[in-house]
User: Fold this.
Amino acid sequence: MIQKTAREGRFLALTPLLLFLVLYLVTSLVVGDFYKMPIAVAFVVASVYALSLLRGRTIQERVEAFSAGAANQNILQMIWIFILAGAFAASAEAMGAIDATVNLTLHLLPARFLAAGLFLAACFVSFSVGTSVGTIVALVPVASGLAVEAELNAAFMTAAVVGGSFFGDNLSFISDTTIAATRTQGCNLRDKFRFNLRIVLPAAAFTLLIYLFSGSAVESVGSVDRVEWVKVLPYLFVLVTALAGVNVMLVLLGGIVTTGLIGLATGSLGLFDWCGELGRGMVGMGELIIVTMLAGGMLETIRLGGGIDYIISRLTRRLHGTRAAQAAIAALVCLANCCTANNTIAILTVGPLAAQIAQRFGVDPRKSASLLDSFSCFTQGLLPYGAQMLMAASLASLSPLLIMGYLYYPVILGSCAVISILVKKRRCQ
Assistant:
């Protein structure tokens, strides 16, 4: 009886996440308006409910536990990136960098190739820098500008960038998810890369065809303004330094300084105008920062309540055969990802258990690492409260749910990963 009550308690710890999804996702779909229910309000309600479930603690102890989750090191690092990204985006827009980059892109690419070009660019940048968030910061403002100039769907164009950003997050040698997956499974980065190609390349190729087909009906955008080459330099600086492997915070700081210097040199911005834009960009990230901290706090209460342990115990109770073991590994990382909203943390959480399952049922460590990485990116791409989606929505001034409606790559990636489990292939030597 005691054991049964403990299991029920652990399941109960997951219900704040379900409440949030009902309040935000289901309500938005039922009402037919993705802006009626603010995501921050949904998180506040779910967070209060989550705190009420922490039995045996005083109010102060519950708040301290929630605050510890909100102030998690990974959460705070993400917040610093949000602040710098907001400052860079605002100053780049004010001095004309976005308009100049949009005009350059329109000169180089026919209108029908814009979405496909953005997806390819995001794939290339994310593979080079190993981070989806950095790719989104660099390319989403350009995608939004292109959508306005070419009179295209802004959510569709933004989704092309977000989808491509997960390509490198999954496959890059320097991606934190790749490193976490290979370390927990005890395999070589290069071997995992070869296994992962079987999943990622078909998904990327099929997604590219969708964007090419979708853009085939787009006609010319008409006259394009003259390209002010010097104003393209901030984005070139960001892309080049990111590709060189410079820390994303240093990249953004350098980009901010570059926009200021060029703005002052060209007369596009005065000193105090530049400072004002920096402040506006930082303040504009306020809602995103609040949501991120609320999510971190709520998800920490789910962990403390035993929600993740409940998931792990239920999925590993009855396993039979290699395919079932692979499916369990996939389900574990997907559910852990829903509870952490961070694909790297999800992999680190269930990685050791996934390694035990792989060893017990004869799953190749390279395959288990590939499954962990692929399914974590699949899940992260479908979370309206994930950092990538929140960042893209903030930069594009859109609802995360609108972007998700056009986010093809994560869904196709997940489908290819499922097929890789169902279809038995010859072992890769």
User: Anything to note?
Assistant: Confidence is low (pLDDT under 50) at residues 1-8, 220-224.
